[in-house]
């Protein structure tokens, strides 16, 4: 099986080329790389046009910033290979974890694999207490409605069989994608596995974008997508 690596980015000029190089160098099967620039204003789009466009499977440009969910929607639609994996453009997740992430799919045990930043033995950067508590609360609430036992619903690393992710309509434009896709996967009764990975988190000074407003939106999305008929 081959990989489609989807890289949504917004104002990631400082790290994007390193991420692309890391994805290319990572162990694992043949892959295509699809980058979606979501209306960046820091020169990311110019960087892509000058140094990247034409060297990857696809580079997609959004004229205005719409959010991570919108960027992923564009990327998923463009994917052509059997396994689709999300790679954030900020170096918080290490492409060296690809083999572990996709192995349950290769073994025909899973249709979807979530990573977990809170299980396993890989390095994990120590950061914000309240961010961790909020993540735990959102995962707990999501699990209550989905009847799953995930340890890290809000994680950015997810791998899918292509036919699974392309069959699901993604409605959320921002970080509400995580609880939305979790609810829809649970309703679809897909086989979901979880794998512990390394996590090299950023501070807000280093460019981390998710905030408390996204947390409240996540609660709304948990209710919306689990309770809606």
From TrEMBL:
Gene3D superfamilies on file: Spore Coat Polysaccharide Biosynthesis Protein SpsA, Chain A (3.90.550.10)
Domain Glycosyltransferase 2-like: 4-167
CDD domains: DPM_DPG-synthase_like
Signal sequence annotation: none
Pfam families hit by this protein: Glycos_transf_2
Protein name according to UniProt: Glycosyltransferase family 2 protein
Provenance organism: Elongatibacter sediminis
């Amino acid at each position: 099986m081959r990989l489609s690596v989807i890289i949504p980015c917004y104002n990631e000029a400082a790290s994007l080329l390193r991420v692309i190089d890391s994805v290319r160098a990572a162990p694992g099967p043949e892959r295509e790389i699809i980058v979606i620039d979501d209306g960046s204003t820091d020169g990311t789009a110019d960087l892509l046009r000058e140094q990247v466009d034409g060297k990857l499977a696809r580079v997609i440009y959004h004229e205005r910033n719409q959010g991570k969910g919108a960027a992923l929607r564009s990327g998923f639609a463009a994917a052509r290979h059997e396994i689709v994996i999300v790679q954030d453009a900020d170096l918080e997740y290490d492409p060296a974890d690809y083999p572990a992430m996709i192995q349950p799919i290769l073994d025909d045990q899973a249709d979807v694999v979530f990573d977990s930043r809170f299980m396993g033995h890989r390095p994990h950067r120590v950061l914000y207490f309240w961010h961790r508590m909020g993540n735990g609360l959102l995962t707990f609430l999501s699990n209550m409605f989905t009847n799953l036992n995930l340890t890290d619903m809000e994680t950015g690393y997810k791998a899918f069989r292509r036919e699974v992710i392309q069959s699901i309509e993604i409605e959320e434009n921002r970080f509400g994608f995580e609880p939305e896709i979790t609810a829809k996967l649970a309703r679809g009764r897909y086989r979901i596995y979880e794998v512990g990975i390394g996590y090299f988190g950023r501070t807000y000074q280093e460019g981390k974008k998710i905030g408390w407003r996204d947390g409240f939106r996540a609660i709304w999305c948990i209710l919306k997508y689990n309770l809606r008929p």
